Amino acid sequence: MVTKASAKAKPATRLRVLRTERLNPGMIRIVAGGEGIVQFTPSGFTDSYVKVVFPAAGVTYPEPFDMRRIRAEYPAEQQPRTRTFTVRDFDAAAGELTIDLVHHGGEGLAGPWAAALVPGDEFTVLGPGGGYAPDPAADWHLLVGDESAMPAIAASLESMPIDARGHVFLEVGDERDQQSLRNPANVSLHWMHRSTGDDTAGAVRELDFPAGMVHAFVHGEADLVRAVRRHLLNERGVARDRLSVSGYWRRGRTDERWREEKAAEKAREKSEQQAGE
User: Fold this and answer.
1) Domain range spanning residue 76?
2) Does residue 38 sit within a domain?
3) Is the residue at 5 inside a domain?
4) Which of 105, 139, 237, 249 shows the greatest Cβ crowding within 10 Å of its Cβ?
5) Model confidence over 6-43: pLDDT tens digits?
6) 210 and 266, same domain (yes or no)
7) According to the 3-state scheme, what is the secondary structure of the chain?
8) Structure pTM?
9) What total of structural domains would you count in the chain?
10) Tell me, what CATH number does 70's domain have?
C-alpha cells in the first residue's frame, strides 16, 4: 500500500496556461505547461496535489521562489496565500499538468482567478504532495467524496485494474454536476444529489459491505468526512491504516480558518489516540 510521503519543503514550479475548459456549471479545468513543466516530478499518488501561489498585491518575491524564505523574511501581510488542488492528470510526454477545481461563482480567491485565466497566463505551484493510491492487494475499494474530491477519485478509478471491485459515493449538487468517469465494471458508482436531500453518509452506513479487506478513501467536506470516518472505524471495524481521510474544506469557513481548525483537530485526535494506547 502506498503511504504518505514525508513532510518536506515543496519545490516551486512556474507554469503557463495552455487552455481552460468549463467541465460543468461548477468545475473548471486548467491545463498548464510551459518551460517550467520539466521541473515537475509526479508524486505517484492518485490524490496528488499542488498548492497554487497567490502573491500579495504589490509584492515581488526573490527568485528562485522559496516559500520558507518568504515566511521567514516577510511580514504576514506580505506573504502569499495558497490554495490546494488535486492534480487530475500529468502527461510528461505532452508537457501538460491538468487541474480541475470547483468554481463557486464570484466567491472566494481561486474560483474567480480560474474563471479569468487565458492562455499565456503564468502562475506558480508548490508540490506535488499526496498520500493515497488504491492498494492493489485490497479485496475491494470504497471511495467517498464530493466535488472537491472528484479529481482524486477519477484519477484513482483510472489507476485500478479492470477486475477491481468496490463502491464509489460521489456527492454533487445535482445531475448537471456529474461527470463521465472511467470506473472498472465491478466498481459501482453512486451519485448523491444535495438538491434532492440525498444522505451520503447514510448511504455508506446502509451499504452491504463486500467480504474481504477494504481500502477506503474518504475526502471532501469536513462534516461528511467525519461522519463516514467514525462509521468505518467504530461500526465497521476498518483499521486506521486501511483508511485515507481528509477534510478538504468545511461549510461556512474560509480556507485559512479551516486550516487552523483542521490543525487543532489533528492535534486533539493525536493526543486522544496516545492517551488510549
Assistant:
1) 12-129
2) yes
3) no
4) 249
5) 445 679 999 999 999 999 999 999 999 999 999 999 99
6) yes
7) CCCCCCCCCCCEEEEEEEEEEEEECCEEEEEEECHHHHHCCCCCCCCCEEEEEECCCCCCCCCCCCHHHHHHHCCHHHCCEEEEEEEEEEECCCCEEEEEEECCCCCCCHHHHHHHCCCCCEEEEEEEECCCCCCCCCCEEEEEEEHHHHHHHHHHHHHCCCCCEEEEEEEECCHHHCCCCCCCCEEEEEEEEHHHCCCHHHHHHHCCCCCCCEEEEEEEEHHHHHHHHHHHHHHCCCCHHHEEEEEEECCCCCHHHHHHHHHHHHHHHHHHHHHHC
8) 0.89
9) 2
10) 2.40.30.10
